[in-house]
Amino acid sequence: MRLSTLLLLLFLCVHLSAQQELMLQSAPELWHSNATNPAFFPQEKRLVIGLPAYALDAAHSGNLTLNDIYAKRNGIRYIDFGAAIDKLDPENTVHFDQRIETVSIGLRLSKKWALQAGHANRFTGAVTYPKDLPALLWNGNAPYIGQTLNIGPKIALFNWNEWSVGAMRSFGNLTIGAKMKFLTGVSALESDENHHKAEIYTNPDIYQLTLNTDYAFNSSSIISAFDTAGYGFRVSLGSLNGKAFTANTGIAYDFGFNWQLTKRIRVSASVLDWKGKINWTENANYYKSNGTYEYEGAVFPGTDIINGGDSLDFDSKIDTLNDIFKFVKTPKEFSTSLPTRYYASFSFMLNTRWTFGASFYKQSGAQTHSALGFSARWSPIKWATIAAMYSVDDRSVANIGMQFILKPGPFQLYLMSDNLANVFTPRNTPALNLRAGASLVF
After folding, report:
1. How far apart are CA 431 and CA 293, in angstroms?
2. What's the whole-model pTM score?
């Protein structure tokens, strides 16, 4: 992976996605809302088949957007990180959560019992990086002679499959649901929170480059080797293709209830990924760099490398990234915990056409996140619903979400976003949220 690609990924992670899905939580008649509460099941339906669905939620801290990265010269668009770097904070965070639901099924056995099963693939994580890192890669070290730059990012990236089975039981107007999820890990990369120091210093007298590191990370099927090929750094990546089953396994649990208090009032709550944990044993390694490396008379050219130049001439013995950082690779199994997610919602049906409600979301774990939304849903005809939601979350107090649902015959089709404006103007926003899918109900 060249430096240009690495740097671009740090910024473009804004287009990946902690998945709050407040709009989905407000639509219990949709089969896919079962992903936010295992007690949700379309009323008066006996068999449901979930067709593919896609969900994405991502954000970059601050106000950085794609339009800050691209510039135009003579009508040609090119990458220019200069303006983007000026907008960064001393520390910046990208968080993301992508969920692909391939297939699911629900079967109502009686008025009291129903069963469910399904499969989904998830890719989630967060990257916290210092402003010094992209500044060094773009500007080189010349502007920072005599300064110590911190370039060590904190990374947590995980990709896994969920194979779920569950059941729900009704007690009058109260329905309780539970789901067990068998997890198979595809790939992971997690920096060691006790070892994330990487500093670079350029001596103003003889331009001696000093790299001081105490940096380590765990990896499974992502990082396989380090190499430099003439210019820039190249990182060989393991396969990121989704494997259905691997030796990386774990378990997680979902619980929820849905209570129709009166004909008009409904309340619900759920906890998802409780006790979720994956043990990484396949291609699992621990990489650690700990020491000081000195290279005399070096001026790191930055932009030249990003643009593909080869003006940085390393000494013959410094021909790999591993030579510079002195990473030591050790086979080592490790485990990661899934963030626990909580939902709660309330709805009031004014009449057959209008329903008003409120939804709350919270995520706990290494990355915390919370959101609160208030919605209004309008069904002008039986098989069509349009909804709007105003929500506040950790990064914004002005999110306007929209929901479009069509239910012709046995089909359920939907498109929704907790912040619809960002879907249509992705280049002008530091955050993105959307979900779309379909199912058959009988």
Report:
1. 39
2. 0.84
